[in-house]
Specification:
By secondary structure, this protein is an alpha+beta fold. It is built from 14 helices and 18 strands. The chain has helices spanning 101-105, 134-139, 164-173, 178-185, 282-292, 296-302, 305-313, 319-332, 335-341, 343-355, 360-371, 378-391, 397-412, 416-429, and strands at residues 2-5, 12-24, 28-41, 59-66, 72-79, 88-90, 145-151, 189-190, 196-197, 201-207, 210-211, 232-238, 241-246, 252-253, 256-257, 260-265, 274-279, 440-444.
């Protein structure tokens, strides 16, 4: 069995999760098992074996696959005992272009929240700019919009380089205009060209070195204990203000970089850019789609206990995917499952925390073992959440939520330092976009001070 979608020769052994039913003439649909099926490109005829159906009796069956955009794809098929049954479920492509296939699969084609702000926040794109290419729009971001890449390797004076959270909260609190926010963050440099574009959408592809559309190349990475890396961020500027996006780079698989895609909708209401980040890995992309749509249990089924452990285990070559695996383990298990199955991967969480000092999420996960899953080491959890704060902005939005939860827990226990830091986190959390998987913070709400 396989799900087939437009993936440009990508594939994933764990692609979609679903449920199989046997059609009984008297009882109707009878539950058989939950399944995880591979997802392959339309050009591929590869299939994956579904162990749950190996000994299924002959009859008519139904599979329902949960798509990461919230829809369900249903297909009927017959099993004849003693013969191989092959089933390919074609997933319809609903995006405007073939090159937006990953975003189409996760349903990322609507303006998010454009009508939810008070009218005072709205500035419409000048009619002369509607339908223009990004190269034109970026030259006048007050009427269009612009993306900038901030890499701490070349922006040492940025407030993101040290004491990040209190300095960022202060910038937000004083209502900085776009220019002040950009200067404080280090400025960075303009992204000049998308990888693909039409009148409505621009698709950008990023790696740690920069934008593939601007000539950057993919790298190879191997992280040992104590190894460091300079973080990269995106700054989006428009008349409405500016947002800082935590770029999850380098996103690696076995040490080799996978591109990070940003799809920008240029026609959103009021000139407010609508964008989404996806990863060029079908399994990760599907899991992120489930998470974005609130389907955490589906994400935890797709990246199941063993798969999440494998992601964690390969932290040396892939620390950011390992972090995602850690989050799914922490958020997807109940306390009883944790207590019975934590012995090995808890140590891997410890390593993620101690080995990668540039990774706030590793420290957040270590702390969450205590206040989410009931780990006994309270002091270690307290030290970890304090360390996470000192390391700066988490990569993942739910990482910030967990840091808030942990800091609030210790503040309520009377820890003075936690109370002070909680106030800072709450300032940042109030301007965080909850619809984005990767942390996105609105650092300015006005083009000019006024």
């Amino acid at each position: 069995m396989a799900a087939r979608a437009l993936l440009y020769h990508r594939r994933a052994d764990s692609g979609l999760v679903g449920t199989v039913y046997r059609q009984d003439p008297k009882k109707g649909a009878v539950f058989v098992d939950r399944v995880t099926v591979p997802i392959v490109d339309y050009a591929s005829d590869e299939l994956g074996r579904i162990p749950a159906l190996d000994n299924a009796e002959s009859g008519r069956y139904l599979v329902q696959l949960a798509l990461p955009n919230g829809e369900v794809k249903t297909e009927s098929f017959d099993i004849i005992k003693g013969t191989d049954t092959k089933l390919i479920v074609d997933i319809p492509h609903e995006g405007p272009h073939e090159w937006s296939s990953l975003q189409a699969l996760t349903g990322e084609f609507t303006a998010a929240g454009a009508g939810l702000e008070p009218e005072a926040f709205h500035r419409r794109v000048d009619a002369d700019y509607v339908g223009r290419d990004y190269a034109t729009l970026r030259q006048d971001p007050e009427h269009g919009f612009q993306l900038r890449l901030i890499n701490l390797a070349t922006a040492a004076a940025s407030l993101l380089a040290s004491d990040t959270l209190p300095r960022l909260a202060a910038l937000i609190h004083r209502g900085a205009a776009v220019g002040e926010a950009e200067a404080g963050l280090g400025g960075g440099f303009e992204i000049e060209q998308p990888a693909k574009e039409d009148n409505d959408y621009a698709l950008f592809e990023f790696v740690h070195a920069g934008s593939l559309g601007d000539g950057a190349g993919k790298g190879s990475f191997h992280f040992g204990p104590g190894s460091g890396i300079e973080r990269a961020y995106l700054l989006e500027k428009s008349a409405r203000g500016a947002s800082l996006i935590c770029l999850p780079a380098p996103w690696t698989k076995e040490g080799e970089e996978t591109e990070i895609q940003l799809l920008l909708n240029k026609r959103t209401l009021g000139g407010e850019p609508d964008y989404t980040l996806t990863i060029g890995d079908p399994m990760i992309n599907t899991a992120l789609g489930y998470i974005n749509n609130g389907a955490l249990h589906e994400a935890a089924r797709l990246v199941d206990f063993q798969t999440a452990k494998n992601l964690l285990f390969h932290k040396i070559s892939s620390p950011l995917p390992a972090t995602m695996g850690g989050y799914l383990l922490v958020l997807g298990l109940d306390r009883s499952a944790y207590k019975s199955r934590s012995d090995d991967w808890k140590n891997w969480i410890d390593n993620l925390y101690h080995w990668f000092e540039w990774l706030p999420d590793g420290a957040i996960l270590r702390s969450a073992l205590y206040f989410v899953l009931g780990d006994k080491d309270r002091n270690a959890a307290y030290n970890a959440v304090m360390t996470a704060y000192d390391r700066g902005l988490p990569y993942f939005t739910f990482g910030l939520n967990l840091m808030l939860e942990g800091m609030r827990r210790f503040a309520n226990e009377g820890e003075t330092a936690a109370k002070e830091r909680l106030e800072t986190l709450e300032v940042i959390a109030r301007v965080t976009d909850p619809s984005q998987t990767f942390l996105t913070v609105e650092v300015s709400r006005q083009w000019r001070a006024g």
